Amino acid sequence: xxxxxxxHLDHLPTLSRRELLRVxxxxxxxxxxxxxxxxxxxxxxxxxxxxxxxxxxxxxPSHIDMWDLKPHAPLEYRGPFSPIGTSLSGVQICEHxxxxxxxxxxxxxxxxxxxxxxxHYLSEVYTGLPRGAGKRPAFGSIVSKLAPTEQALPSxxxxxxxxxxxxxxxxxxxxxxxxxxxxxKESLSDLTPVKDLQQLENRKSLLSAFDNLHRHLDxxxxxxxxxxxxxxxxxMIASPQVREAFDLSGESPETLARYGHKAGKYPHxxxxxxxxxxxxxxxxxxxxxxxxxVRVVTLHAAEWDHHSSADGDIFFALKCLxxxxxxxxxxxxxxxxxxxxxxxxLVVVLGEFGRTPKITPLGPGREHWADAGCALxxxxxxxxxxxxxxxxxxxxxxxxxxxxxxxxxxxxxHVLGINLDTSLPDFNGRPxxxxxxxxxxxxxxx
Length: 446
Description:
- The protein is α/β, with parallel strands linked by helices.
- 35% of the residues lie in helices and 16% in strands.
- Helix 11 packs antiparallel against helix 12 and helix 13 runs antiparallel to helix 15 (281-292).
- It has 2 domains: 1-47, no CATH class; 51-180 and 242-445, Alkaline Phosphatase, subunit A (3-Layer(aba) Sandwich), CATH 3.40.720.
- The protein has helices at 17-24, 26-29, 33-41, 63-66, 75-78, 98-102, 123-127, 139-146, 163-166, 186-189, 197-216, 226-238, 240-246, 253-258, 281-292, 314-338, 405-416, 442-445; strands spanning 2-4, 7-9, 51-56, 83-85, 92-94, 107-114, 156-158, 265-268, 271-277, 296-300, 345-350, 354-355, 368-369, 373-379, 386-388, 403-404, 423-425, 431-433.
- A hairpin with a 2-residue loop joins strand 8 (265-268) and strand 9.
- The protein is built from 18 helices and 18 strands.
């Protein structure tokens, strides 16, 4: 007898083992067995909404040392690492990322991405637009507003605990109800099972306080969407599926090791005396969340702000970081493939810019470089097995056209089914398109 969504069913049509495994995850993804049977009856396979896992290498990863090596450039440019061949003919990446090299034919590497900002203002990373465009909603908030999930799970989850990063993930005029859910401290403890009716009533009273608050404040627009937040919060509190999606306690030590959790240490920026454990858990959590039906998951993977300093060395830092990032990214990609989610989930790995191709002797180090960054794409139904864009012989600038963060975010919207011609009114009622340049990266979507 098969038990699905707390219902026992012992009269089912014949299903293959693969279909039964698929059914076992449907309750989390917003589909029920009835949906499956109904779709089969009319000859259509059910389609789950697509999702994105957005991995931010905050601080600016060095493109010339990781994904865009120039082994024939002068010594003061090329750095100490050697390129290795990949599963994609003619394409090389850094020797310290062998797992990504092995799966390169299943990914798409974009080189020569140009950012407007040349400092750690992450507005482009999360909205596609620089600071000069004003305070725009994060792309996850846009997705939450225009194409939300249809179950208790939030549409947009941020796995970053940093308050600095969170400032760039605000919903602004998309509405407060479309802010990312951040599963930390009190937010996560509120998802623990309710022991009695009085405890549930206490939580209802707390949510009512939010409602009363926005009724009496002078700036109601700032609380636009709070009613939706109130409703969804109650659903999340009551939902065992939500708790399960955020609970890693059932994952085996072997799985955590495969994702690279605590597989190595890395320095904070480039100060060798301050070393931190690599955290692979957010990658695994992200996989669980998108499998459950969350549409946008963002995560912040370590620190990549490697400058010149007397006690620093960018190459030491990168030699620590690249292997553990390699483990986590490869485990995530393989896991999604093994679970049949490679066309349903898009993974994007990037930073806000690259690093100066010419090495600063002190340290040694590389500084901020807005003219040529890289991004790695996987899945989502896009065209994989290619390198898009090319930089000059010293990895300084693109030589075949401009790719911007607006094009990156447009590609994500395209995958998630967001109409790029949509406009939203700001707090003053003035409409804004989601982006100024609403062109997805052509080679990925063709």
